[in-house]
Design a protein that fits this description.
The complex is a heterodimer of chains A (about 325) and B (about 400). Helix content of chain A is about 30%, strand content about 15%. With about 325 residues, chain A is of the alpha+beta class. Classes of the chains: A alpha+beta (about 325), B mainly alpha (about 400).
Chain lengths: ~325, ~400
């Protein structure tokens, strides 16, 4: 703006015009400004409805890792009361922490899996997924024999399984040791716990879905709407970081059923599997079944070239 | 010259400057009021659609777990480019000391302000939980810096906004006070803003190309491509704005900047096309599984072809615009309508290419190779139009504030 140099030398030229009849114009402008502001408030009035669904305590809640034991107890009591109020179900929400000396890994025997999809269904029920959208953390891909190229697979197969020329590849969260989803989260709403499980604080996630874009295994799901689960179907055994009914607008994921596995049980998908294709356990336990499999079978992982280092293995007999 | 006494404190005179500017920016002809009323109405429609989206959940959009980003992030990406493209006025003005560019360079900076405001609005519109926006604020929230590229983007975008607000605010304020701007108070910031403009688009490209699981984005060429197309769309917008300003206000001295920007686009549009061609070559000549997203974009995949007409439209517009820009006559005063048409084509071409043509194929096929198509819902279009209307409102008001400065004949 070098032409400014001339300003000081030409004081006779006002650079902002003097507006006449100031007061009348001011009144008209103020009138329109008020009208505009009123229209704006009316336009965003649906927000009031949304605000009703969020309590002040929820709005102000800090990150899970920063809650004191007392605060955690308060939060959990509030969440249980809210579930009762919104879903009509009595639930208990635990705060299951990793068991020291545990690193959970999962393995699937592809020679045995026949694509029946019981795991998908069990996951849906166990984790209190929205009934309308029929969500699940597991996707089973029907693949032509002789290829590992998912391009040729189908997740929407129908008909009697197993088909002779196909094999079946169930995919869920691989609980990566280098999880891209955790790296990209702008608010640290998702992290990897000591037992290898990647979790989400549903009360901290802002819903940007960057983790969904980053995940190479399509393992994350977003709550596009408020989940609907009939009171009778709500699974009451819940955990804060796991299968409690998620709020709308946040991302969720498979937690290896930490509300079960951290209490010494097996994941719901494994229990539901009729073929015994699924194996789960603590890789740090030298005598565990999973350790034997990983040491003795021909094992491989999905998309190894991406360097995500999954804690989820596939093997053949 | 102004009503502010020389010794008055900035604390009182700066608000007076803002007030006078706002007053002036809301003065105008009947056409101006009609324009602003139309924008206000579109903005209100968008605000209402967004409020409904927040109340009802994002189920109102057509995004899915497979295509988890859509029209909002597409527009966000394009707007970052528009903001960065404004720098193509700053570079000739301050690095090459182009005097005539100096007089109008503020247009580029004001465009950057409006574009960044739109970027921020598009990001907010895309959030599932906008009420938790404060989780992103450093200090009270939890900022995943330096690991998350999104936190980098928050920093560079807001930094660029502040930089441009400072530069424009300072220059116009000095003009209001009738003083000569002190170069120490703005030249370092202008130089910084040049680097910063490059950085906003670099970081935004890194958002996508850093994702190993999305082969369509995972290319080092993404950043230079982003910059090249930004240096087409930004100048194209400013040329059209200057032609309009000249028409509507009769301000002189705009022909030289228009010619300079036309020469810039002449080069950048070809660089952009070259990079598109390089990328297509690597994709299609190599083949393999990485090509499926590009196949979907250009020819359709498994019978799904929603983006095909869009992408060929973009290519048609870009090539036609490039050919027009190559024609020397376009610099001539007589061919203004043709220049405006070429700019509009380049602008729309870049919008499709960098918006829907970049974001959506990143998700199709999905990481498990499902082909789930995406067509924006009416709600998404409403919100998008609303944000564009708001951005144009900001730009119009900003330009009106700067008009008295531009109106002064260039005296050197």
């Amino acid at each position: 703006m070098t032409s400014t140099e001339t300003d000081s030398t030409s004081p006779s030229k006002p650079c902002l015009p003097i507006v006449e009849n100031f007061s009348r114009r001011a009144a008209v402008k103020a009138g329109f400004a008020t009208l505009g502001a009123g229209a704006f408030v009316a336009a965003i009035s649906p927000l009031r409805q949304a605000a009703k669904n969020t309590s002040a305590a929820e709005f102000m809640q800090t990150h899970y890792t920063e809650l004191s034991p007392e605060q955690k107890a308060d939060v959990i009591a509030r969440l249980e009361a809210e579930t009762k109020e919104k879903y009509g179900a009595d639930v208990t929400i635990g705060d299951d922490r990793p068991i020291p000396g545990t690193k959970f890994v999962y393995a699937i025997n592809l020679s045995v899996c026949n694509g029946n999809g019981k795991c998908v269904e069990a996951c849906h029920k166990e984790n209190n997924h929205d009934r309308d959208t029929n969500q699940s953390y597991i996707r089973v891909i029907e693949m032509p024999k002789g290829t590992m190229d998912m391009e040729q697979g189908s997740t929407t197969y129908t008909g009697v399984v197993p088909k002779d020329d196909k094999f079946y590849l169930p995919v869920q969260c691989q609980q990566c040791d280098e999880p891209p989803c955790v790296d990209v989260c702008p608010v640290k709403a998702t992290w990897k716990e000591e037992d290898g499980i990647v979790v989400v604080d549903y009360n901290w996630c802002i819903g940007c879905r960057y983790c969904e874009a980053a995940c190479p295994y399509h393992a994350r799901r977003f709550n596009w709407k408020k989940p609907e689960v009939p009171a009778a179907e709500v699974n009451p055994d819940q955990s804060y970081l796991s299968n409690r009914i998620r709020p709308v607008g946040v991302v969720e994921k498979c937690t290896y059923c930490l509300h079960r596995t951290r209490r010494g049980k097996l994941p719901a998908c494994l229990e539901a599997c009729p073929t015994g294709a699924r194996v789960f356990g603590n890789i740090l336990d030298k005598d565990s079944n999973i350790r034997w499999i990983l040491e003795n079978k021909r094992v491989y992982i999905l998309k190894e070239e991406l360097g995500t280092k999954p804690a989820f293995f596939y093997y053949f007999d | 010259m102004s009503s502010i006494p020389a010794k008055e404190s900035h604390i009182t005179s700066y608000p007076k400057f803002i007030g006078r500017s706002l007053w002036l920016a809301t003065e105008g002809s009947f056409a101006f009021y009609a324009w602003m009323t139309m924008l206000t109405m579109l903005f209100l429609v968008g605000a209402n659609a967004w409020a409904n989206q927040v109340a009802g959940g994002m189920i109102g959009t057509n995004m899915t777990d497979q295509v988890s980003w859509g029209l909002y992030i597409a527009n966000f990406t394009f707007m970052v480019g528009l903001a960065a493209g404004g720098v193509m006025m700053v570079i000739p003005a301050y690095l090459y000391h182009d005097r005539k560019m100096h007089d109008v360079v503020i247009l580029g900076e004001l465009l950057a302000i409006a574009a960044i405001v739109m970027c921020l609005l598009f990001v907010v519109a895309d959030l599932g939980r906008p009420d938790r926006f404060w989780h992103m604020l450093p200090g009270i929230g939890k900022f995943n810096w330096p690991i998350s590229m999104l936190t980098w983007d928050v920093i560079v975008l807001n930094g660029y906004l502040v930089l441009n607000l400072h530069i424009c605010g300072y220059l116009l304020y000095m003009r209001f006070l009738g003083r000569k701007p002190n170069p120490t108070w703005y030249i370092p910031f202008v130089m910084l803003s040049i680097v910063w403009a490059i950085s906003i688009h670099t970081v935004t490209a890194f958002l996508y190309c850093g994702l190993g699981g999305r082969p369509f984005w995972n290319t080092a060429l993404l950043t230079p491509r982003f910059l090249a197309s930004a240096f087409v769309s930004g100048p194209a917008f400013i040329i059209v704005a200057m032609v309009l300003i000249k028409r509507l206000t009769g301000i002189g001295g705009l022909d030289h900047p228009i010619a300079t920007l036309t020469r810039i686009i002449r080069v950048t549009i070809l660089i952009n096309l070259l990079m598109v061609a390089s990328e297509l070559f690597t994709e299609f000549y190599t083949g393999g599984s990485h090509v499926s997203a590009a196949k979907y974009l250009f020819f359709g995949l498994h019978g799904k072809t929603a983006l095909v007409p869009w992408t060929w439209t973009a290519i048609g517009l870009n090539i036609t615009a490039a050919l027009l820009f190559l024609w020397p006559g376009l610099l001539g005063f007589r061919w203004r309508p043709l220049l405006v048409a070429a700019c509009c084509m380049a602008f729309v071409g870049a919008w499709i290419e960098k918006g829907m043509g970049l974001i959506v194929p990143g998700f199709i096929p999905s990481t498990l190779h499902e082909v789930v198509e995406y067509v924006p819902s009416q709600l998404e279009w409403k919100v998008t139009v609303g944000i564009w209307a708001f951005g144009l409102m900001v730009f119009t008001i900003a330009v009106k504030t700067a008009l008295p400065t531009l109106k002064r004949p260039a005296e050197h």
